[in-house]
Design a protein that fits this description.
Two copies of one chain form a homodimer. The first copy, chain A, is α/β, with parallel strands linked by helices. Helices cover 22% and strands 35% of the residues of chain A. The radius of gyration of chain A is 16 Å and the shape is globular. The mean pLDDT of chain A is 97. Chains A, B: It comes from Actinomadura logoneensis.
Chain lengths: 201, 201
């Protein structure tokens, strides 16, 4: 049975984006500082990872069969133009289906507008069909954590201080929460790959 | 020549205290989960550390000859009743000297009320006399970082989500900042000890 995890690149001060959507050059430096060429499914988007970080990413994605994302991430990327860089189906939790999105109906994107994060996770799990579900975006990751729907929290901890912006995790209604781990800890170049298991009550 | 560092126990969501000064039982669990008995200078305060974490703490304190703390931490601890648990002189950056503090004039505490964080760091360095200065408290650590006065950032990363509270680092005026490292990374029990070097422009 697959797990539901979140995994983001995060600064030492806890941000997944700097002020005004800045800082991505720094947060994603580890996607560009090695020799392993990784062609994504997005035209023109090629990573150059170190062997260590490539192995981490490979391992993380090996069983990932769906991503669940929030509307903010969908909007920033314009829904990755209908195809996620990792070529995995995407579930979007949103109040309204973006009616003017040109890939509506043709792309492997499912919009969940009712039932909140529980329904969105259920939909993503159904699509993943026994595989893992990756949750992306701080708000939706926090909602999943708060609702007891998250099995693992991963972070690619990057040695930068962004000094403001979008935090990985927001306020929890059901905190504090104990986690186990790191159950995996790998030092890459300009990044520490960490994973924690959420303890179920 | 000594360095100026900050080092705090911090949750995965970036807090050094939970909502309403909660969460210390979780953040400081690693001070209590081992067999190495560590008598502090504070009556009744004894740590029981694992060997790994005791070694980290020993290493960190070996050359620490002064602490610089903010007023919030001073107030929470009531100035450690005049003697820091690690028996090191303390410099307090504050707008006003706490006139009703019973240890005023007898304890090795120096209050800096003018010249801001620059003056406070200079005072702490003079007292440390070539040793290291440890900066404690998120607000003052952020101020030091912003002013280019910090050489190292350490964190004892604890596998807990506090879901709110007091963040380690606040907003930076002079961010973003690149750091180097981790220059030290040690996995303890219920804690990951990490250190980063601040890059000087």
């Amino acid at each position: 049975m697959g797990i539901v995890y979140t995994e983001m690149s995060v600064s030492l001060d806890g941000y997944i984006a700097g002020p005004g959507e800045s800082g991505f050059d720094r947060l994603f430096r580890w996607y560009e500082n090695g020799d392993v060429v990784w062609e994504t499914a997005s035209p023109g988007l090629t990573f150059r990872l170190t062997e260590v970080s490539a192995a981490e990413l490979r391992e993380r994605l090996a069983n990932t069969r769906a991503f669940l994302v929030g509307r903010r991430l969908f909007d920033i990327t314009n829904g990755w133009e209908g195809r996620h860089p990792f070529d995995v189906p995407v579930v979007v939790l949103t109040h309204e289906v973006p009616k003017d999105w040109p890939h509506l109906g043709t792309a492997p994107f499912t919009f969940v507008t009712e039932g909140g994060v529980e329904a969105a996770v259920a939909t993503a799990k159904r699509i993943a069909d026994g595989g893992d579900v990756g949750v992306n975006g701080g708000t939706i990751a926090t909602q999943c954590l708060d609702a007891g729907l998250l099995d693992e929290v991963g972070m690619a901890l990057v040695p930068v201080m962004l000094g403001g912006g979008v935090p990985y995790f927001g306020e929890l209604e059901n905190g504090p929460l104990d986690l186990e781990g790191p159950i995996r800890s790998v030092q890459g170049k300009d990044v520490t790959h960490l994973r924690y298991r959420v303890r179920r009550p």
